[in-house]
Amino acid sequence: MTEPARLDRDQRAPTDVSAAMRLEAFGFRIVAGFARLLPLDVASWLSGWIWRVIAPWLRRDKRAMQQIAMALPDISAAERRQIINRMWRNLGRNFGEAFHLDEIHSDPTRIALRATPETLAELKTLSRLIVVSLHTGNWEVASLAFSKSSQIPVTGIYQRLKNPLVDVEVVAMRKRFYQLGLFPKGKDALVKMIRTVKNGGAAALLADLRDFRGVNVPFFGRPAPTSTIPAIISLSQDAPILIGRVIRTEGAHFICEYELLRFTPTGDRDADVLALTAQIHAQFEAWIREYPDQWMWAHRRWG
């Protein structure tokens, strides 16, 4: 039995929430309790099946189909439909697995690490690091894998959920895998992550979502508003970037693949931030093309 995660003051649920939010949170707790009663593989399969059946009828399915058509116009509409159907199944599996993260972390057969011997050797010499990944496979597994393969303590940022009561529940499930804290995305997040890296830690984030406060970089042939946080921290703190992805292989089994990103700054800060951000997303695009059904197409990415 793991000790319940302690929440920072700004991550505790407020008391002034609506009745609808309380009802939603109650429903979430019922689902969570049921999922935890099921064996991991059953929870993963059942949740994946439910999402695959229901999600194609929801509004976000239309957005997913529109975005994959823009990004991958050379494949047929039927192939795109199959990819999005498999995406929904993968996202459903992620939901079911979220209530079994401790089991996934403790079972050595669940996560296989894939990195070159040179990368593994270099990681042992580093005292500061940026860890960047994307919403593919079960992306929560990335933090579990990093905690297994590195002694560098890590902090992370996340997108706060609209329902603060559910947000507290979700953070509690994830927080123990971030030794230096898990903070909501906001004005203070960059400062906290820079401080973490400066003091000899790792800052981890998912960097493939739309961010109008960043810069436009090419992504599947279209300009995409993109966060510059990984590049800014890396360049300002002279910290290397470890870029990685999670690949679902079969059921609730995964490969976590990562490599150190090579980038030589020119001294022009703005140009370097743009170039490094574009390099990160060029790798993301290559990975998504390899396993398009494991990326989160339903999120609005291009403007």
Short key terms for the protein model shown above:
disordered N terminus; seven-stranded mixed sheet; two-stranded antiparallel sheet; 303 residues; alpha/beta; 9 strands
The separation of the N and C termini measures 44 Å
Strand order of the largest sheet: 1-9-8-2-5-3-4
Instruction: Return the string of H and E elements.
Output: HHHHHEHEHEHEHEEEHEEH
Q: What would the principal axes of the Cα set say about the shape? A: globular
Q: Percent range for helical residues?
A: 40-55%
Helix vs. strand class = alpha/beta
- How many independent structural domains? 1
Mean pLDDT: 90
Enumerate the spans where pLDDT stays under 50 for 5 or more consecutive residues.
1-10
Total helices: the number is: 11
**What's the main sheet like?**
7 strands, mixed
Number of strands: 9
Strand content: 15-25%
Q: Radius of gyration, Cα only, in angstroms?
A: 19 Å
Secondary structure: elements and pairs:
Blueprint: H1 19-37, H2 40-54, H3 59-71, H4 77-97, H5 101-106, E1 111-114, H6 117-123, E2 129-133, H7 140-149, E3 154-158, H8 164-174, E4 182-184, H9 189-198, E5 202-206, E6 210-219, E7 222-226, H10 229-237, E8 241-248, E9 254-261, H11 269-290
Helix pairs in contact: 1-8, 2-4, 3-4, 10-11
Describe this structure in words.
This protein has one domain. The chain contains eleven helices and nine strands. The protein has helices spanning 19-37, 40-54, 59-71, 77-97, 101-106, 117-123, 140-149, 164-174, 189-198, 229-237, 269-290; strands at 111-114, 129-133, 154-158, 182-184, 202-206, 210-219, 222-226, 241-248, 254-261. α1 (19-37) packs parallel to α8, α2 packs across α4 and α3 (59-71) packs across α4. The relative contact order is 0.16.
